[in-house]
Hints:
With 451 residues, the chain is α/β, with parallel strands linked by helices. The protein has three domains: 5-97, no CATH class; 119-135 and 274-434; 139-268, no CATH class. The protein has 16 helices and eight strands. The chain has helices at residues 14-23, 28-32, 46-58, 64-73, 75-80, 88-97, 99-115, 142-164, 180-199, 208-239, 314-327, 346-354, 378-388, 390-396, 399-413, 424-450, and strands spanning 123-132, 139-141, 266-268, 275-279, 282-294, 299-305, 336-338, 358-360. The strands form two sheets. Strands 1, 4, 5, 6, 7 and 8 form a six-stranded mixed β-sheet that branches. Strands 2-3 form a two-stranded antiparallel sheet. α1 (14-23) packs across α3 (46-58) and α7 (99-115) runs parallel beside α16 (424-450). The longest helix is centred in the middle third of the chain and has 32 residues, at 208-239.
Amino acid sequence: MPPDVREWLPERHLAWFVIDAVAEMNLEPFYAAHRVDGRCRPPYDPAMMVAVLLYAYARGVRSSRVIERACEEDVAFRVLAAQQRPDHATIARFLERHEDAIAGLFGEVLTLCARSGLAKVGVIAVDGTKLQANARNENLDYEQLAREIVEEAIATDQAEDERYGDRRGDELPPEFSTSAGRRGWLREAKKRLEAERSANPQPVPRDRPKRLRQAKRRLDEELWTEIRANQAYEAWRARGVAADGSRRMAPGTIKPYTPPASPEGRINVTDPDSRVVKGLRGFIQGYNAQAVTNEQQIVIAAEVISVAPDFGQLEPMLNAAQRELRAAGVTDTPEVLLADAGYWHQQQIERIVDRGIAVLIPPDASKRRGARPGWDGGLYAFMRRVLGTERGGGLYRQRQPMIEPVFGQTKHNRGIARFQRRGRAAVTAEWRLITATHNLLKLHRHTLATA
């Protein structure tokens, strides 16, 4: 009889734990996507594929080719794959096809953590880290995009002329032949556009010509949004009605504004959703990966945004955390929310406090000497006094050991400092899988310690 590879794995090995964990998860979304009429070639068992991916990501292995090779050479992978050999294309297609279900594994792992008592939420912390996008540092403006699209169209026409003998080289696509109040309207309009893109993310095409057209369309959308917002603002000013209902606003007292004729700004043509963000070692083309953790360093919410500042993310991340906790069966409400100065948003802080959750955020960044100009009195002074007390300062000092080691473990120990996939939806699913495997490792260590 040939040797049984299962005998080569130690009893307390992570692979056995992953197999047991997957057996307790609800994998119906994976199975629902497969045919059940017996037609076509039978797929690999989704439970096996999920187990292989969870183990691979927990070990910091994300390349589909490396995973394919490991299923042949590594004992743990061979046990997880039940001696099967899924190739790299199958693994990559599984990740792409089951994108939403992959993201849902975060909630399944969090549920297992809750059952083990690791999802306590007395004190929680929110923070973000910058991860590189799977994109070249190639940001083009509108004119460069249009020029390349025209050149690509000409090259395509020439290739088709040589192939089919139908010369039509004389044709080109037809699309190529401030006051503070106004800034507020434009800012709100762009914020709504960004929210709409976040709610309905579009996949990034594989070939460059399609990506160029997608990038151009996004710049056109931003210009159209600015034009519409400016027209709405001009109409509002023309009515001469102030915010308090009075008619003290003179329509002609502000300097007129004319939106640009063509879109301004630059966009990345490899991953249009990514942005130039500031990391620890300078600017990178990437995303801002957000997380909420508890005192056990369990990630209870994981989201990705495409803007560099953390400003405005305090309440959305708290909402995401409470939504994930409810789905995991945790009904407790957090008592204290910790964040660094980048999350200071007075309106959001006041709304969170009204929900019965204490918020501790310093108004001033740690590198700043003294208070910010104009940030005196009111909530600013109150927060400084609270953080200056023994109780408040002691609670806030928990923030760094609660969440910073999570990012350090992910980026340095597991070597995950760059996304593999492209597009907002894809990198969000990837980030949730990364944080789910972080929680899985925490749960495994907890199980070993309590055994």
